[in-house]
Amino acid sequence: LPAGGVSLRLCSTQVAQEGINKPVIDRIIRVDHAGEYGANRIYAGQMAVLGRSSVGPIIQQMWNQEKDHLKKFNELMVAYRVRPTVLLPFWNVAGFVLGAGSALLGKRGAMACTVAVEESISDHYNNQIRTLMEEDPEKYKELLQVIKQFRDDEREHHDIGLEHDAEATPAYSVLKTAIQLGCKAAIFLSERI
Question: Between the CA atoms of 87, 151, 173 and 167, what dihedral angle is there, to the nearest 10 degrees?
Answer without folding.
Answer: -130
